[in-house]
Amino acid sequence: MKATSMRTPIDIPVERCSDGYLKNPEEWDEELAVLLASEWNGLTFTEEHLPILHFIREHHAEHQTTPDVREATHYIVATKGLEKKAAKKYLFKLFPHGYMQQGCQLAGMRRPTAWCVG
Question: Which residue has the higher pLDDT, 112 or 26?
């Protein structure tokens, strides 16, 4: 984790790896997402984050992979009716330190093995 992006980790009642990802993604819930978000400087957690976090989890459950930026952008285009460029901008507004890192952490995923940011 970048020291400039993160606050000092708070006491969160689940086991995490040294990079802050959950070791047991099945322990995730929306309240935990709010706690995890509180560690990030410059991130204000809102209800707008929840559909993306649920998309990440549902995609992973179905495909056994974390959706990359292209897939998340496609999801936003389909659900919010935005153009592709606006959807990608929206995604990075929600996760200003990076969709793959912030999004996956807040969704309770394990650390992605491939860091494709496409």
Answer: 26
